[in-house]
Specification:
Length: 227
């Protein structure tokens, strides 16, 4: 079974002042690199979907497979479809959709979801304390139907698919770092860009709020609206 993760990073990130794919997460890694590492540990291939600021993101992540969403301004579904096209063309059997501003996900959670993914499941969605989370895990057939959906938003397009909610103990599936306030609560500093790859090292700051402390209190991302 070939699993391909599609990391959605095409939006404007109006509230964060920096492209979200380039913001520092942990260990000097950007949001995008951190997620790519997590999915890789779970045995997934990774495709990043870019739109605005694509040149800067490519320069920062030379080792990642990245595709352009030419119609990213039309809404998140256009970027989803760009990722689905690339993943299906690569021969993916299972596809995982993940917004770039949710980098706290655990590899162990991904491994559990992939084990649960059976032929009869069209879409699985993790939930933490009753809140819907990410990634969405799609069968190839569900991905093909989603690719044919009309509209601009992802959530309405999912209503035509069979979605199974799976409770998990990982708060990272719902923690959405999409505002400066949330970032500062987690890391004790204003959002900042990750250093260039050659200078990456361990973070030295202390006193940061942990993902577990945010827990279910963090607002889950209802749609990949701003990536």
């Amino acid at each position: 079974m070939k699993a391909v993760a599609i990391i959605l990073a095409a939006g404007e990130a109006r509230r964060m002042a920096h492209p979200k794919a380039l913001i520092e997460h942990e260990g000097g890694k950007s949001f995008l690199q951190s997620l790519a590492s997590t999915f890789g540990k779970a045995g997934c291939s990774v495709i990043g979907v870019l739109g605005k600021d694509s040149e800067a993101v490519r320069e920062q992540h030379p080792g990642l497979e990245l595709v352009e969403s030419e119609r990213w301004q039309e809404g998140p579904l256009a970027s989803v479809k760009a990722g689905l096209d690339a993943a299906l063309e690569s021969g993916a059997d299972v596809l995982l959709l993940q917004p770039v501003d949710m980098p706290a996900l655990r590899a162990s959670t991904l491994k559990s979801l992939l084990k649960l993914m059976g032929e009869g499941d069209e879409v699985m969605r993790p939930e933490f304390e009753g809140a819907p989370g990410w990634p969405l895990v799609l069968s190839r057939g569900a991905a093909e139907r989603l690719r044919a959906a009309e509209g601009q938003q992802l959530e309405p397009a999912l209503t035509a698919l069979k979605v199974r909610r799976v409770p998990v103990k990982d708060p990272g599936v719902v923690v959405n770092i999409n505002t400066p306030e949330t970032y500062e609560r987690l890391f004790g500093t204003a959002p900042k860009l990750a250093p260039p790859p050659k200078r990456r090292g361990k973070r030295t700051g202390t006193g940061a709020t942990t993902v577990g402390e945010l827990g279910g209190g963090a607002a889950p991302m209802a749609a990949a609206s701003e990536e």
